[in-house]
Design brief:
The complex is a heterodimer. Chain A is mainly alpha-helical. Chain A contains 13 helices and no strands. Chain A has one domain: MetI-like fold, CATH 1.10.3720.10. Chain A is 76% helix and 0% strand. Chain B is an alpha/beta fold. The longest helix of chain B has 38 residues.
């Protein structure tokens, strides 16, 4: 009995240590956002500097980071909404209905999952150029409608969580197929949708390659492009402004994780259950 | 249930709103953008439909200073300018992908020295000598010959211009120089370090005097930028890349430096930057633009202020510098040329910019004004900084101008890796040299690789 508190103490010390290690890079980033470029390059410090206003002004004078923030938010939220809704609908269709070539369709989704997105990037660029859609957010948002990985994950979850008898009872009660999906299936699939929604949001928020290739208009730049700009100029570096920009850029990701982290755990746990 | 309904209804509504906004964006890049561009000088955007000469002049660059200069020029001259800053590595990729298509190409683009020859030879640029013969000739007459040679094609026609002459200097710590060499006079310090063979003995003296706390060099990265410039022949001639004795010599110099631990760091890291204020190293090699971007930011108002001097390095070298090209497909020829001239050729502009950052201009006329100003830089112990650059520029004028090829950027990067692998003992000299040849061969299959070391 006496060993239990000791074990617990050791466990807490280890966990606190791990938490400190995990948080430390974020702390350094926030501290550096308040220091001048010269100070940052001269060495490491745990004490905040006094240059946050200068860094902010420098940041905004180089690129309109706040506008890029809005662009990123628009793209990430929209693509996440599209991914969640339409992937859930596809997964529901593959689970709730029996139709010809159902297995072939699912196999096709699996195959698409295995193709690295970088392979299609040049073709995608040419396609968008042909469609006159360069310097537009549409190519960054609309392809999210078809997300093979999200469909796969939600379908696997739906197979264990979504009972056909619920769907049939709804039909007997006179609900249409679309209504059944919206009012019955979606709430049941919520943990899986949230899990993939968070992943989708973070992936879209951090997406660098596709915006780099498709966007050349600075007013349309998303945050990852802007952050790289601060790092680009070796002759005129502004490291403090870059750290501030990075600190601003991770705020939404942190909020998403803090608010929705329990859904991730639920989703992962639920995905592992089998009846 | 109702909350779910609301949430997903909201999601769908957001998706629809985005689609509408996205469509709005496309329309904006069409006719609406013209009026926007007209009302927002210096910050408009160019799209395909605008490239009839009405849209902004679009510049792709990797440097923020160019953005400031170009936007200031646009505001002064009433020309709408849109500057797109793209990181170095991505700029190359994006240019290669989009430069030949008038729908996607910028009007002006700026690349660094190592990649200038590559872009000169791609044939995507406006021939400035043909398009603006008199002004191009004026620039060529008034600019240092190696800068002109680099920006010209094989016919000698000007394709690219630059604002800066990035003469390579050697920075030295005055206190250490006095202690070890008995003088901090730039000429005498330059002379004392001019022979590579004397470096080990000199380092021994430093080691004895400072008990190993002071290194001879700041970084091997900057040292090798200087050493690699000592070649008298190009890396690639008639499609043959030759691994030469000169290269082997650089490998051996580095081996000795690594064996004796004569350097502080390999790359410009925190220890190196801190070293400017802590007497951690004796000399370092930076080009003229390195003064404002690396040296001044470190020592201004700190312990290193006034402790350093600059002098002639053992081997004359140029490093970096930005060159402006105008694309063949531009619909803004005149504005683009005026812009490029305004930020890179105009004498008063060059004087103002280089005076502000203690740099060195590309034209002799501007540099004469800078030198005649007699400015003494307190951070460099009141040294006449422009005079020091001028002296170095005169030395560099004597160097051959035909050693730069379009392959140099990649070859030097491969060579740097191979040098480190040999110097730190990971590879034998033969393996490192063969590895260098193999890397060049895989990057440029059209080249033949020969070994002559």
């Amino acid at each position: 009995m006496k060993t239990k508190p000791v074990k617990k103490t050791v466990m807490y010390i280890c966990l606190i240590g791990l938490a400190v290690i995990s948080f430390f890079p974020f702390y350094v980033m926030i501290i550096n956002a308040t220091r001048s470029t010269g100070d940052i390059l001269s060495g490491f410090s745990l004490i905040p500097g006094k240059n946050i206003t200068d860094n902010f002004n420098e940041m905004q004078s180089r690129v309109d980071v706040l506008k890029s923030f809005r662009n990123s938010l628009l793209v990430a939220l929209s693509s996440t909404a599209l991914t969640c809704y339409f992937s859930a609908m596809t997964a529901y269709g593959l689970t709730a209905y029996d139709f010809k070539l159902k297995n072939t369709a699912f196999t096709a989704i699996l195959v698409i999952m295995m193709i690295p997105p970088q392979l299609s990037i040049i073709g995608f660029f040419k396609f968008m150029k042909g469609m006159n859609l360069l310097n537009s957010f549409i190519p960054l948002i609309l392809p999210s409608v078809a997300s093979a990985t999200t469909v796969f994950f939600i379908k696997q979850y739906a197979e264990t969580a979504l009972s056909r008898s619920i769907i049939e009872s709804a039909r007997i009660d006179g609900a249409g197929e679309f209504k059944i999906f919206n009012r019955m299936a979606l709430p049941i699939l919520a943990p899986a949708i949230f899990t993939m929604g968070i992943n989708s949001f973070v992936a879209s928020w951090n997406n660098y390659l596709v915006p780099l290739i498709l966007l050349s208009d600075t007013k349309k730049f998303t945050l990852p492009l802007v952050i790289r700009i601060f790092n680009a100029d070796t002759q005129d570096p502004s490291v403090g402004a870059m750290y501030l920009c990075i600190a601003i850029s991770i705020v939404p990701v942190m909020i998403v994780f803090f608010v929705f982290s329990r859904y991730i755990i639920d989703g992962i746990g639920a995905g592992g259950e089998k009846e | 249930m109702s909350s779910w309904k609301k949430m997903f209804a909201g999601g769908v509504a957001a998706a629809l709103a985005v689609t509408m906004l996205g469509c709005g964006g496309t329309a904006e890049s069409g006719s609406d953008a013209k009026s926007e561009a007209a009302s927002a000088k210096g910050s408009g955007s160019k799209s395909e439909s605008e490239k009839g000469g009405d849209g902004p002049v679009v510049i792709w660059t990797q440097g923020n200073s160019i953005k400031e200069d170009a936007e200031a020029w646009g505001a002064e001259n009433g020309v709408d300018v849109d500057v797109v800053v793209i990181p170095f590595a991505d700029l190359q990729t994006k240019l290669k992908q989009q430069i030949t298509d008038p729908k996607t190409a910028p009007d002006v683009y700026a690349v660094t020295k190592d990649y200038v020859k590559d872009w000169v030879e791609r044939g995507a640029n406006l021939d400035l000598s043909e398009e603006f013969p008199e002004e191009a000739k004026d620039y060529m007459d008034n600019t240092y010959k190696d800068l002109v040679a680099l920006g010209s094609n094989d016919k000698g026609n000007l394709q690219a211009v630059t604002a800066e002459y990035p003469v390579g200097m050697m920075y030295y710590n005055r206190e250490i120089a006095k202690n070890i060499l008995g003088t901090d006079d730039p000429d005498e310090v330059g002379e004392a370090l001019s022979d590579v063979d004397t470096w080990p003995d000199l380092y021994q003296k430093i080691n004895d005097a400072y008990s190993g706390k002071v290194k001879m060099f700041g970084t091997t990265q900057n040292l090798n930028k200087m050493l690699s410039n000592r070649r008298e022949k190009p890396y690639v001639r008639e499609d043959v890349f030759t691994v030469t004795k000169d290269m082997a010599n650089i490998f051996e110099i580095n081996k000795e430096i690594y064996d004796d631990k004569m350097f502080l760091t390999e790359k410009e890291d925190d220890a190196y930057f801190a070293g400017w204020n802590t007497d951690a190293f004796f000399v370092d090699f930076l080009p003229s633009w390195g003064y404002s971007s690396k040296f001044q930011t470190q020592v201004d108002g700190k312990d290193g202020s006034g402790k350093w001097g600059m002098t002639t390095p053992p081997y004359a070298y140029n490093r970096g510098g930005t060159y402006f090209f105008i694309t063949k497909t531009t619909s803004h020829k005149k504005d683009a040329w005026d812009l490029v001239k305004g930020i890179s050729v105009d004498t008063q502009k060059l004087v103002d910019v280089q005076k502000k950052k203690d740099g060195f201009a590309s034209t002799k006329e501007a540099n004469k004004i800078l030198v005649d100003s007699g400015y003494e830089e307190p951070l460099l112990g009141n040294q006449k900084v422009f005079e020091a650059y001028q002296k170095q520029a005169e030395i560099q004028e004597e160097l051959p101008t035909d050693v730069v090829t379009k392959y140099d950027g990649d070859i030097e990067s491969f060579m740097n890796d191979a040098v480190i692998n040999y110097a730190n003992g990971s590879m034998s000299l033969d393996d490192a040299m063969k590895g260098l040849g193999t890397q060049v061969q895989s990057a440029y299959p059209e080249l033949t690789v020969k070994y002559n070391y």
